[in-house]
Amino acid sequence: MSRFQVRKVAVLGAGVMGAQIAAHLVNVKVQVVLFDLPAKEGPKNGIVAKAVDGLKKLKPSPLGIAEDAALIGQANYEEHLEQLRDCDLIIEAIAERMDWKLDLYKKIAPFVAPHAIVASNTSGLSITKLAEVLPEEIKPRFCGIHFFNPPRYMYLVELINTPTTQPQVLDQLESFVTSSLGKGVVRAHDTPNFVANRVGIAGMLATMIEADKYGLSYDVVDDLTGKKLGRASSGTFRTADVVGLDTMAHVIKTLQDNLKDDPFYPSYATPAVVAKLMEAGALGQKAGAGFYKKV
Ligand code: NAD
Fold first, then answer.
1. Pocket probe mutation, ligand 1, options 12, 17, 55, 133, max atoms within 8 Å of Cβ
2. Span 268-291, mean pLDDT?
3. Pocket perturbation via mutation, ligand 1, pick of 52, 156, 238, 247 by most ligand atoms within 8 A of CB
4. Cβ(12)–Cβ(104) under 8 Å?
5. Domain chopping of the chain, boundaries
6. Which of 89, 109, 145, 288 could be 119's S-S partner, Cβ–Cβ 3.0 to 4.6 Å?
């Protein structure tokens, strides 16, 4: 297998995941350019600048050293797409909406280098459907790369191929993710929410339904499902806040849209409390409030 040299990576989407994936990459000395929508407020206060600032405030911060933030190049899709041409890897991490991702792929396709790998960090949308909009020459180099939140600390990365992904591309990506990023890879089939989220979301929903039935507080449930159980993760409700309730709702919708014959299907409803918090803009950590008032 020829060695895949990753000198520069474009991360599309400077949200919860994109910003932290960028941070992890600069921590391991890979050059990064982080993209998001153009800033309404002007370049200095744009989405990417805010995301990079936010990285320093997260506890624990995903930035190894404070100066690493300065190494994250900032760009938007309207003015800076040329910068994609010298990227060896493009990781798409925009919101979990198939239509938005497809629009973006059409926009970036003319700027993708002939050798570059393009990979989506989707939580569980069909990688095969995402590939459909790409030109034939990019399809063999497109796949899913599913990091877990927080990406600096979570070991697992799922890699997902489509029928048109070249096997060598997945091998090259696996080698980069394990050797350079220090992660463990599971190769997953292109099924709704792949493996970990398919199981994980079912567990979270069942826990939320039961907690509501028995009137349990978020703290008690988080103790029972998190640290006091000996798990490294922070329990059901705090995890939902870290993930983002809007993202969680999108991930639930993927199950609703695709698994109508699944025996668990009736339990895939978005819990009323999640819908209510979303309506109030309490999307979790990224909004400063979610299940917990301050997250
Ligand atoms: P987020 O809401 O925090 O950030 C999404 C970013 O996408 C925002 O910065 C937004 O400005 C940008 N964006 C929105 N619409 C866009 C458009 N039309 N074109 C271009 N950019 C647009 O979301 P996130 O939690 O970072 O999730 C990003 C992706 O990673 C999703 O596919 C999600 O399912 C996946 N993911 C999320 C988690 C998690 O725990 N949050 C974990 C693993 C994978």
1. 17
2. 94
3. 247
4. yes
5. 8-188, 196-287
6. 145
Distance CA 84, CA 90 (A): 8
> What is the band of 228 on the pLDDT scale with cuts at 50, 70, 90?
confident
* Calpha distance 238→204 (Å, rounded): 11
Q: Is the pLDDT of residue 114 over 80?
A: yes
What is the number of the ligand 1 atom nearest to the C-alpha of 244? 41
Beta strands in 166-220 (DSSP E): 184-188
Average pLDDT over the chain, rounded to whole? 93
47 Cβ below 6 A of ligand 1: yes
Report, as an integer, the average pLDDT of 156-173: 98
Quick one: which of 238, 246, 255, 256 has its CA closest to 295? 238
Atom of ligand 1 nearest to the CA of 14: 9
Tell me the average pLDDT across 223-238.
Answer: 88
The topology (CATH level 3) of 196-287 is N-(1-d-carboxylethyl)-l-norvaline Dehydrogenase; domain 2 (1.10.1040)
pLDDT at 210: 92
- What value, to the nearest 5°, has the Cα angle with vertex 191 and ends 176 and 141? 40
In the reported structure, the alpha carbon of residue 216 is separated from the centroid of ligand 1 by a whole-number distance in angstroms of: 31
Exposed, middle or buried, 152 (CB in 10 Å: 0-12/13-18/19+)?
Answer: buried
> Looking at residue 295, what is its pLDDT?
53
CATH level 3 topology of 8-188: Rossmann fold (3.40.50)
Q: What is the pLDDT of residue 1?
A: 57
- In total, the chain counts a number of residues equal to 295
Is residue 119 in contact with ligand 1, taking CB distance under 6 Å?
Answer: no
Q: From the CB of 19, is ligand 1 less than 6 Å away?
A: no
Atom of ligand 1 nearest to the CA of 36: 21
Indicate whether residue 245 lines ligand 1 (CB < 6 A). no
Q: Please compute the mean of the pLDDT values over residues 161-186 and round it to a whole number.
A: 98
